[in-house]
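User: Just a sanity check before I run the rest of the batch. Below are the structure tokens for the first item. I only need the designed sequence back.
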């Protein structure tokens, strides 16, 4: 473009000095300006198209990376969830076993208390019967004659 401007300046100077100057030479130069402008425009459009394609490719790559990261995150979440469910199941099983042990212990303590209560009642009954027999014997041995 600078060469064309320089050439235009020379032709302009020549047109001012030379009376036989052919104006078609300036028209030819103007066509060269037009061609150069179209070339620059085409080059700019080509450059913009290339930048657009690069940006689209970069966007596709970013989307793929985001998809991979999201899939990895979801897989990690699933693994964590499964692990937590396994831990919950193990803890629940442990609690159920402890509850069953406590229930059995409670049943055994109830049976032991029932047996102890029955023995206590039997001992009390035996003691009462022995006291009654002793009282009868004492009462029968200390009889006063009514005379």
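Assistant: Here's the designed sequence for the first item:
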């Amino acid at each position: 473009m600078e060469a064309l401007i320089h050439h235009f300046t020379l032709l302009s100077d020549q047109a001012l000095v030379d009376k036989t100057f052919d104006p078609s030479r300036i028209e030819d130069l103007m066509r060269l300006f037009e061609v150069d402008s179209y070339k620059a425009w085409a080059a700019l459009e080509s450059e913009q198209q290339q930048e657009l394609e690069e940006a689209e490719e970069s966007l596709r790559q970013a989307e793929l990376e985001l998809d991979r990261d999201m899939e990895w995150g979801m897989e990690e979440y699933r693994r964590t969830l499964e692990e937590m469910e396994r831990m919950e199941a193990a803890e629940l099983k442990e609690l159920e076993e402890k509850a069953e042990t406590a229930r059995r212990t409670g049943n055994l303590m109830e049976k032991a208390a029932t047996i102890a209560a029955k023995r206590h009642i039997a001992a009390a009954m035996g003691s009462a019967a022995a006291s009654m027999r002793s009282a009868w014997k004492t009462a029968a041995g200390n009889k006063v004659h009514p005379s």
